[in-house]
Amino acid sequence: MTQIHSQWLDISADLRAWYAQPAGKGPFPAVLVFIEAFGVNEHFQDVAERLAREGFCAVVPDLYHGRVYDYADFGSAIGHMKTLRDTQVMAEARATLEHLHSRPEIRPGRVGVIGFCMGGRYTFMANAELADSIGVAVAFYGGGIAPEKDPAGRQPLLHLVESMQAPITLLYGTEDSSILPEEHGRIATALSQAKKRYNLSVFPDAPHGFFSDRRDSYREGPAKKAWQIALQQLREGLGALG
């Protein structure tokens, strides 16, 4: 098993991030990880460490600034999510990327971005708003990308498609009642019409949140298959790992 190191980093005076890296000097490709609505919990620390074991430096900006919610406390988590502002999240993501590129173990050039749930939406957004920095994007069940009406009041994102440069992979479950097939279709149509490179995979018997093994929605089979797809896309998008 690849040896790794993980720790909290101070990105700025008011922003921290969980960081995991393979042992050694590198340089290693980097991946920015966007959280779900529950904060930088043990699951997301584990996601970063899993990426580090695959040869990536992974950073998870703490968009909730220290707040973490139990998976059973859905109302509080969603309430916090509704307070986030897209411009602030993108500013914090850019600051995190700038910090990454100051570190000697990071390979120069574009990075990968991967996100889950609300973080899947921010992945889609970052692929346009931070297009100069992103080499590949993977969004797990990103809610709020192209709904007819978003229950959280967020702005849909299809107007950003033209600005995307990196290939994007979108992963969904058939049992996700919050992201319906019609939304998959709207996203695929927009990406195809804009002539963007993308993959869209839908997993049978998988509900929203199927990747997190800390949640009741976890489904081992789809989670493993989706993770392999994500790793393949990251490796292809960022080049062969040294």
List keywords for this structure.
33% helix; 242 residues; 8 strands; alpha/beta; eight-stranded mixed sheet; Rossmann fold
Describe the structure.
The chain has one domain: 3-Layer(aba) Sandwich (Rossmann fold). It is 33% helix and 21% strand. α1 links the parallel β3 and β4. α3 crosses α4. The longest helix has 19 residues. The protein is globular, with a radius of gyration of 16 Å.
Structural topology:
Elements: E1 4-12, E2 15-22, E3 30-34, H1 42-53, E4 57-61, H2 74-81, H3 86-100, E5 111-116, H4 118-129, E6 134-140, E7 168-173, H5 181-193, E8 198-203, H6 220-238
Parallel strand pairs: 3-4, 3-5, 5-6, 6-7, 7-8
Antiparallel strand pairs: 1-2, 2-4
Number of helical segments with 4 or more residues = 6
In percent, how much strand structure appears in the residues? 15-25%
Largest sheet: 8 strands, mixed
Order of helices and strands: EEEHEHHEHEEHEH
Would you tell me which CATH topology applies?
A: Rossmann fold
How confident is the prediction overall: mean pLDDT? 96
- Domain module tally: 1
What structural category do the secondary elements indicate?
alpha/beta
Q: What Rg, in angstroms, do the CA atoms define?
A: 16 Å
The N- to C-terminal Cα distance equals: 16 Å
For this structure, what is the CATH class?
Alpha Beta
Shape: globular
The CATH architecture: 3-Layer(aba) Sandwich
The number of strands is: 8
The CATH superfamily is: Alpha/Beta hydrolase fold, catalytic domain
Low-confidence stretches: none
> Which bin fits the share of residues in helices?
25-40%
